[in-house]
Amino acid sequence: MSYLGTTQTLFVNEVSNEGAYLDGHELGEVFLPSHEIKHELEAGDSVSVFIFLDNANLATATTKKPLAQVGEYALLRVKEINSIGAFLDWGLEKDVLAPFNEQKPRMQEGYSYLVRLYLDNASGRICASNNFNRFLNKTEPEYAPLQEVQLIVAGKTDIGYKVIIEEAHFGVIFYNMVFKNMFVGQRLTGYVQKVREDGKIDVILEKPGMAKVSELGEKIMDKLKHEGGVLA
Q: Which member of 21, 70, 139, 171 has the lowest number of beta carbons within 10 Å of its beta carbon?
C-alpha cells in the first residue's frame, strides 16, 4: 500500500541544514524540510509525518495534520477555482485539487463541500472528489435490522437526508424520522431500519421504543449483577 496521502512513522536516514531525509520504503527517501522539524532529530530517530508529492513530484513530508487523509471524508472550503478545477483548504500550505470531472455538483468558490480524498493513479497526486458514486455501493449491503452504524450526512433530497453508511453505502433518513438539526459533513450514529430489495437502505437515528426498553432492561440487569442483586 502506498504511503502517499497517509500519516506514517518513518525513521530518519540523514539530517542536514535543509531538513531530514526519511526512509519512505517503496517511495525511497522522503524529505522533511527544516521548518517542519519541531525538535532536534538524529539519524535513527523516528518521526510521525504526513506524506505527499511536492510541485516537483518528489515525496515530501510534513508534521502538520491535514483535515483528511486518502480514503477519508471531510467538509472542505473552496479557496480558488481555475482552469483545471477547484482548490480546497485541507489544513496544509498546499491546497488539494478537486478536478472538474470529480465535482458533482460543480463547486463554487467560498463554499464548503463534503469530499473524499483519493490518490490519482496517473499522477500519484492526492485529489478530492464529491462524486461519491465511484466510491460507494461497491459491495452488497449486509446490515442486520437495527444494526448500529456510523453515518456521515452527505446532503438533502426531496424525501430526506442522504447519508454515507460506514463509508461504504448510501442510505437515507426520511425527514419524518429526524428530530434534531443536521448538516452536511456531520458524523453521527444511526441504525439500519431496512435494506430494500433494490439495495437501498433506510436509516433511523434512534431505536424504536421496544428496542430501547430492551436495551434499558439489559443495563438494569447488568447493574443488578454488579450490585449483588440489589439496586441502591
A: 139
